[in-house]
Every structure is written in C-alpha cells, then in structure tokens.
C-alpha cells in the first residue's frame, strides 16, 4: 500500500538558542523524496524545534499529496512521538499550540508516528541544521 513518510527533526544550539526544524517528505512506495523543508524558528528549545519540523512536514504532505494516502511520521524525539500519539500529556504552552496545529492539519487523515534512533534520522537532522546555518526557512521540492 502506498504511503507518505515524513522524517522530521529539530535542533537548538544552546537549548534554548538558535533553533530550526527539518523535514524530509517522501513517497515510500516509489522511494522518491518529494520535498525537504527547513523551518527557521529563531530562539527556541530543541523540543519546540522538533515540533516545528514535524508540523512543516505534515503541512507539505497534506497540501501536496493524495488525501487517501496514509502518512507515517518518523522522529528521534520520543517526547513528540508520545505526545502526538496521545500517550503523554503536553504541558509546555508552545508545544501545545504546535500539537494543536498538527492535529488540525491531520484532520481525518490516517497518520501514524514512530520513534527512530537518531542515526536513522540523519536526513531530517541535516535539513534542520542547514536551516539553522542559513537562519532562514526553505522548501526544496523534488527536481
């Protein structure tokens, strides 16, 4: 069955400090990257940056892919995965706003979340770091 996979990550240099999220959206069936999204957050915590990367990936996937195709989100943030899966409470107000934004984007679409080890999330980490280095957001669609 076809599905869209989002690898999302975020980082903060200083925690809190200069922060950005990153997402790589790809068609799992074809093995093709659809887009890379960097979202510069400014001054924030690592967890807020992680949420921003996930939200950016979801937004792109929801806007650019078939609504009948399920989405699978992979992240190395256990916190975000557990909170978005509904197993952990969200106490931080900034993260609660971002989680609500993600849920609104998801709507009725089938979306699952999976924790992966940091080494398995290198592509999204590289996108987040590029956004931090540039101090700007960007979208690189597939060429």
Keyphrases for this structure?
alpha/beta, Nucleotidyltransferase, domain 5, RNaseH-like_sf, globular, 143 residues, RNA-DNA hybrid ribonuclease activity, nucleic acid binding, RNaseH_domain, RNaseH_sf
Word description of this protein:
The protein is an alpha/beta fold. The protein has one domain (4-141): Nucleotidyltransferase, domain 5, CATH 3.30.420. Helix content is 37%, strand content 34%. It is built from four helices and six strands, in the order βββαβααβαβ. It has helices at residues 46-64, 78-84, 93-106, 122-134, and strands spanning 4-13, 17-27, 32-44, 71-75, 111-115, 138-141. A six-stranded mixed sheet has the order 5-4-1-2-3-6, sandwiched between helices. α1 (46-64) runs parallel beside α3. The radius of gyration is 14 Å and the shape is globular. The protein starts with a strand and ends with a strand. The model has no long low-confidence stretch (mean pLDDT 96). InterPro entries: RNaseH-like_sf, RNaseH_domain, RNaseH_sf. Pfam families: RVT_3. Residues 1-133 form the RNase H type-1 domain. GO terms for molecular function: nucleic acid binding; RNA-DNA hybrid ribonuclease activity.
């Amino acid at each position: 069955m076809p599905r869209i996979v989002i690898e999302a990550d975020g980082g903060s240099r200083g925690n809190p400090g200069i922060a950005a999220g990153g997402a790589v959206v790809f068609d799992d069936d074809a093995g093709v990257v659809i887009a890379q999204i960097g979202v510069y957050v400014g001054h924030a915590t690592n967890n807020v940056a992680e949420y921003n990367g996930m939200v950016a990936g979801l937004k792109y996937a929801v806007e650019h892919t078939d609504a009948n195709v399920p989405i699978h989100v992979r992240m190395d943030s256990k916190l975000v995965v557990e909170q978005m899966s509904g197993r952990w409470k969200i106490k931080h107000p900034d993260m609660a706003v971002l989680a609500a934004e993600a849920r609104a984007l998801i709507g009725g679409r089938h979306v699952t979340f999976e924790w992966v080890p940091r080494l398995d999330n290198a592509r999204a980490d590289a996108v987040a770091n590029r956004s931090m280095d540039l101090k700007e957001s960007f979208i690189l669609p597939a060429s």
